[in-house]
Amino acid sequence: MESQDSGVPEQEFYHESILLDEVLAYLAPQEGRDLVDGTLGGGGHTEALLKAGARVKGIDRDPQARQYASQRLSRFGSRFEAVAGRFSEISQLASAGGWGLLDGILLDLGVSSHQLDCAERGFSFRFDGPLDMRMGEEGQSAAELVNTWGEAELRQLFWDLGEEKSARKIAAWIVKERQSLPFQSTLQLADGIAKLLGRRGRTHPATKVFQALRMEVNDELGELRRFLEAAPDLLKVGGRLAIITFHSLEDRIVKQAFRDASRHEIDRPEWPAPRPNPQLSYRLITRKGIAPGTEEISQNARSRSSRLRVVERINTPLS
After folding, report:
1. Quick one: pLDDT band at residue 303, thresholds 50, 70, 90?
2. For an engineered disulfide with 215, which of 21, 40, 61, 220 has Cβ 3.0 to 4.6 Å away?
3. What pLDDT does 268 receive?
4. Topology of 20-114+220-313 in CATH?
5. Mean pLDDT, the chain, integer
6. Residues in Cβ contact with 130 at an 8 Å cutoff, skipping those fewer than 6 apart
7. Above 60 in pLDDT, residue 275?
8. Fold match between 20-114+220-313 and 137-217?
């Protein structure tokens, strides 16, 4: 099927843009504005920003994503650039590229539909494929992690990043099983967990384990924390940062960071009076996470758990 707008073959497997109308409303893209999409993926959000007239740099560590987005968005010429890297490296990328201060930054922390649906990437247990899960080409694969980490480490990983109640039982089973047959494929691990725990309800029993492995392999929470630390210095006064999260661990980190950087004063019990907040950088634009509407959820079930939070860079007395 051909895209009417771009002439590029439509690839259904790429990530459908989540909360697109809300992102456009809060980032207000227009001619002359410089924006960064830190999670380029298939370029859905970026395309909408470009259509509104903005210039956009799209960051992604996945060469397949950059190649696809570059083809899809080629009609926008020099207003778009696909940049190889991680969004946590945004300061270095901006410095190397001479980007200057930005009018807005967007992160969509969801895994792309392409990565989930492409068996050889090893993100999903809906297809059999190598147990990989790397968003880029470097680092330790999920198979290496599962086959080398100790039982206590695996248990803690599944509990912390997957919030898996059966973490202890699963970790013990993995360590026992890999002695005779190392884990190499997605279904080998997923079917084994399903057999171990049994099937109840619609959610596959391996879901939280796969989430934890993916987050660890790609250092997703570390990436997010490093980005949040760097972001204020990259925005113009009035520039906005919009982040879409998909589970409670990410959302908690973003919510706390935004709250800490928007307080004018901080206080401690041992202090005689509150003091100016040295981290003050933002004004909260969204007091609560913005959730998708029922129509969007009905059209795209993967949007169900998403939340959008937005802040605006301010000119502080401390800066």
Report:
1. confident
2. 220
3. 87
4. Rossmann fold (3.40.50)
5. 89
6. 120, 122, 141, 143, 184, 185, 186
7. yes
8. no
Q: Which has more confidence, 188 or 318? A: 188
- Report yes or no: 252 and 163 within 8 Å, Cβ to Cβ: no
User: What is the rounded radius of gyration, in angstroms, for the C-alpha atoms of the chain?
Assistant: 21
pTM of the entire predicted model:
0.87
Rounded Cα–Cα distance for residues 310 and 23 (Å): 9
Q: What CATH architecture applies to the domain 137-217?
A: Orthogonal Bundle (1.10)
Residues composing the chain: 319
Lowest mean pLDDT among 226-230, 236-240, 265-269: 265-269
Which of 44-53, 118-127, 167-176, 183-192 has the weakest average pLDDT? 118-127
Amino acid 124: pLDDT: 63
Q: Which residues contact 216 (CB under 8 A, 6 or more apart)?
A: 145, 157, 161
In this structure, which amino acid lies at residue 276? Answer: P
Parse the chain into domains and list their residue ranges.
Answer: 20-114+220-313, 137-217
